[in-house]
Structures are given as C-alpha cells and as structure tokens.
C-alpha cells in the first residue's frame, strides 16, 4: 500500500516543524509548498538528511508548484503571515484572506479529496474562507486552535496542581481569539471537575481565574517572548494530533474549528467546538449543554467570529 501523502501549504516556522514531526512519526511522504523560492526545498532536504540518523522512511519534497500536492491525503495550511508584538490575530485578516484564496484554489484543483487543517490566523474566519474558496465538503475542512488552546490550559493546570498533564483534561471552546472560552466545568484532573478541586482546596478561584486568563493570552505571551513571530512547536504538535486522528480513523474527541450546521445554539458557522475526528474528517460536532454564564461567553466569542466573517465578505465579494 502506498504511503499517505501529507501536503504542507506554507513552509515557514510551523510548516517546517510539521514536516519534521510528520517525518519522525512516519505519517507518510511529505510535500512542503511555499511561494518562497528555495526555502521549502532547503527544509525538505535538511529534514531528509536527518532520516538516516533518526531512522525514518519518508520522502520529502519542497516546491513552488501546486501540481506537486496532487492526491494529498492531508493538507495542513499555514501559508500567510503571523503576528508581531502588538498585533492582534485580527490584524492579519486582509493579507491572509488573499492567501486563502490562492491556497483554496490550489487544493481544489490538485487535492480535492484531502482532509484540510487550517492554522492560518485569524483562524475561524480563515478556515471558513478556505472552505468557500476550495469548495471541499465542510466535514473535510477544519481549523486547528482548540487542541492548542486546551493543551496550554492543561499545561498550566498540571503545573498548578503538580500532577502529570496526562491526567488533566481541558476544554476550550469558541473563536481562537481574545474571547475564547476555557470551560472549567468540563475540565478535570483524574476525572474531578475544576470547580470541585477549588472546593477541595487544591487551588483557589482567583488562581483558577488567572490560569484561564493566561490561557486566553497564551499566544500573545509567546509572541511577546519571541518578538519575531508566533508559537510554532505546540501549534504544529496540535495539528499533527488532528492529522493522526484522521489518517488512523481514531475517532478522537478533539476541539477544533468546525462547521456547525445546527448545534450549541448555532447555525451555519465555523467556530471552535468539540468534535469527533476520524476517517470521514469531522464526523460529529458534540452538542454540549452550557449554563447561562458559559453560553453568554460562547455567544460573545461567536459574535467576534461573525464580525470577522462579515469583514471577509466586505473585502472579497465572491464570498457568499
Ligand atoms: P511563517 O513562519 O511566516 O510562515 C508562513 C509561510 O507562509 C511563509 O514561509 C510564507 O512564505 C508563506 N506564504 C505566504 N504567502 C503564501 C502563499 N500565498 N502561498 C504559500 N505560502 C505562502 O509563519 P508561522 O508558520 O509562524 O505561522 C503561520 C500562520 O499560523 C500565521 O498566520 C499565524 O498567525 C498562524 N498561527 C496560528 C495558530 C493557531 O493556534 C491557530 C498558532 C500559531 C500561529
């Protein structure tokens, strides 16, 4: 059986990290596409040359031609520009929307059967636009954000409680922006929900609130430290987790920016929701119940995403 083909559209910081991880995990043969000449070829060769020491079998190719992504099983899209200090994700909208148009058309022509994971910001609006431009079925186009935001939340909680992050589950919903919704009630340590842990004296409500805020600001914290771009190790790892769920039909329950047809009080919008990911892409959106406060936070986040989608439509009137 032929190896799966993984196309990485955008070979920058996240794209290069994705290629390295996909090779180390032997997920398949890898194509790195970028408009920058030489850079994807250089990264592909460099990673291929790590193969003999690491012992992986994977072919790597760098390219500026969409023809090389032909027949890809998975496309992970990071093409565009990242944030610099002082910028919000929304500041990237105009420039990255144009990038999504060319990427969407490239995928439509050469890899229409792929499972597409978008990472480019502002995430929820870009994944919506990418689905529109590519014309792929909505269940095959989704965005990576919830896995990363939840991983950040889990990391901070594991540090606070002094326990393994393996035993911490966490849940972040809504748009990938300042209004994202970390849900304490659905986040647990060894199955014990966070509000119970506050009652048990493991932490205080104030400390938990500070962790929730740090999670919301998690991207900006890294941008502030790096100064030249945004996070790439954890974003790449999160997208690989989603790609593996698809390639291995794992039926993982993962939060991602998925098209919500009719759930969580929403109709017809891409936003961060709990999903099941397997061989059919996003196989299910999990219609969880929220209390009044949670619903209010979620609604605020949804409004922010709707505002960005409206801005996309104003910039490009071919978007419906
Ligand atoms: P960077 O290292 O700049 O890589 C982006 C690459 O895209 C560059 O190599 C560009 O040459 C390339 N590119 C630009 N235009 C095109 C085009 N039309 N076609 C193909 N390639 C193109 O950025 P990065 O890898 O650090 O980040 C990539 C994106 O991910 C940015 O938009 C970030 O804001 C976003 N990001 C999202 C998250 C989420 O959690 C959703 C986290 C971190 C970064």
From TrEMBL:
Active site residues according to the UniProt entry: 176
UniProt entry keywords in alphabetical sequence: NAD, Oxidoreductase, Tricarboxylic acid cycle
Lineage top rank: taxon: Bacteria
Keyword NAD: yes
Domain Lactate/malate dehydrogenase C-terminal: 148-309
InterPro entries: L-lactate/malate_DH (IPR001557), Lactate/malate_DH_C (IPR022383), Lactate/malate_DH_N (IPR001236), Lactate_DH/Glyco_Ohase_4_C (IPR015955), Malate_DH_type3 (IPR011275), NAD(P)-bd_dom_sf (IPR036291)
Chain ranges of the Lactate/malate dehydrogenase N-terminal domain: 5-143
Similarity annotation: Belongs to the LDH/MDH superfamily. MDH type 3 family.
Protein name: Malate dehydrogenase
Organism: Rhodalgimonas zhirmunskyi
């Amino acid at each position: 059986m032929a190896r799966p083909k993984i196309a990485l559209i955008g070979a920058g910081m996240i794209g290069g990290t994705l290629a390295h991880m996909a090779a180390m995990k032997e997920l398949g043969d890898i194509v790195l596409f970028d408009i920058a000449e030489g850079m994807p070829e250089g990264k592909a060769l460099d990673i291929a040359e790590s193969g003999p020491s690491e012992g992986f079998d994977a072919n790597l190719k760098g390219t500026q031609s969409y023809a090389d992504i032909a027949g890809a099983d998975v496309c992970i899209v990071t093409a565009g520009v990242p944030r610099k200090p002082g910028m919000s994700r929304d500041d990237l909208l105009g420039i990255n929307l144009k990038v999504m148009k060319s990427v969407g058309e490239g995928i439509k022509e050469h890899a229409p059967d792929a499972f597409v994971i978008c990472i480019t910001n502002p995430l929820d609006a870009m994944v919506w636009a990418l689905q529109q431009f590519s014309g792929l079925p909505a269940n095959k186009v989704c965005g990576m954000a919830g896995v990363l935001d939840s991983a950040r939340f889990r990391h901070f909680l594991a540090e606070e409680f002094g326990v393994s992050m393996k035993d911490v589950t966490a849940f972040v919903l809504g748009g990938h922006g300042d209004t994202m919704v970390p849900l304490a009630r659905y986040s647990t340590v060894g199955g014990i929900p966070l509000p119970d842990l506050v009652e048990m004296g493991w932490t205080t409500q104030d400390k938990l609130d500070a962790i929730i805020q740090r999670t919301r600001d998690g991207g900006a914290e890294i941008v502030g430290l790096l100064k030249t771009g945004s996070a790439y190790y954890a974003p790449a790892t999160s997208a690989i987790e989603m790609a593996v769920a698809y390639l291995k039909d794992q039926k993982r329950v993962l939060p991602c920016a998925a098209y919500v047809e009719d759930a969580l009080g929403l109709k017809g919008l891409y936003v961060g929701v709990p999903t099941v990911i397997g061989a059919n892409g996003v196989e299910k959106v999990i219609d969880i119940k929220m209390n009044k406060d949670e619903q209010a936070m979620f609604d605020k986040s949804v409004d922010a995403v709707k505002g960005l989608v409206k801005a996309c439509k104003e910039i490009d009137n071919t978007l419906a």
